[in-house]
Amino acid sequence: MKNKRQSSRHAKGPAGRAGSPTRNTETRADNQATFRNSDKRGQDKRGQERHGQERPGQERRGQEKRGRSTRGKAKPERVYLYGMHTVRAALENQTREKYRLHATENALGRLNIDPALIDGLEILPAETGGLGRLVGGEAVHQGVVLEAAPLPAINIENMEQKPLVLVLDQITDPHNVGAILRTAVAMDAGAVISTARNSALESGVLAKSASGAVDMIDHIQIGNLARAIERLSDQGYFCIGLDSEGPAPLEETFAQAPNDGRFIALVLGAEGQGLRKKTRETCNALARLDMPGAIKSLNVSNAAAISLYAARKYLDN
User: Fold this and answer.
1) Which of 11, 138, 271, 286 is the most buried (most CB within 10 A)?
2) Pairing of strands 218-222, 164-169
C-alpha cells in the first residue's frame, strides 16, 4: 500500500527551509515581490466583492453556521486554514487544491516558502483586522489565511502500511483531534482512522491545533469502524482498545501481539463515552493506562500521546 501524499516539508539543504541564510533571504524577497505584484489584483478583487460577488467571509460564516454539529454532516466545499505552520504545510502538500492566499506583507515574507509552490496562486494582500473577519477575531492566524479544498478522501486499502496506526471512535472535538494528529506525526504513525459520522471534520480550528500535521499524515474516515478494525487485523495489526477497565496495562499488552508485534493499532474512544460496545468487542485486546497519581483519567489527546509514545518505544525495541 502506498501513500500518494507528497510533502517537501522535511527537505534539507539549499532548496528546503533548513537551507542557508542566503537562500532564506532570497526566498523572502521573492515572496514579498510576489505580494507587491498581486496588490493590484487584490484591489480589483475587493472592488468586485463590493459589487455583490462572492465574499470569502460570508461563505465561511455560512459554513460555520451549518456546521455546528458534525453529526451526519458532509465535508465543507472549502476550508480556511490559518497560522504559519498550518499554511506552510498545506502549500507544500501537492495533493491539496488551493484557491487563494490572504496574507499581510510581513507574514508572506515570514512564510519563507519556495516561490514555485505559490506560482499561479491568487495572493490577496490583507490587513490583520481583515483576516480576523475571515477566520474569527480570536483565531491566532499570524497574518496568513489559505482558502483551500479539504483533503481528498483516502481509501483504507490505499493506506501506507506502517508499524503504527491510530483509530479514533467518534471523537468530535477538533482541538483534540488536531492535537492527536500532531502527536501521530511526531511518533511516525502511518495513519489516523476515524468515523465519517460523529467525528470532527477538517476545519481551520482542527488544522491549527494540528500545527501542519493535517497535511503530513493520512486521515482516513470510514463508515463502519468495527469493519475497519477487522480489516486492520486481517492485515496483521494487533488492535488494542484503550479502556480504563482493561485487564492489563498497555505496556504488558504489547507482548500479546502476534507476528512478533510488528504492527500495532491503538483504538481510543471519546471522553466520557469511551469505546462503544461493538468497538470494544472487535479489538484484539483491551488495555489500560495506569496512573500513579491522584488523578486517574486523562484528556483523550493526552492519552493518545502517552499511548503512541509507549507503542513507539515497544516497536523500536
Assistant:
1) 286
2) unpaired
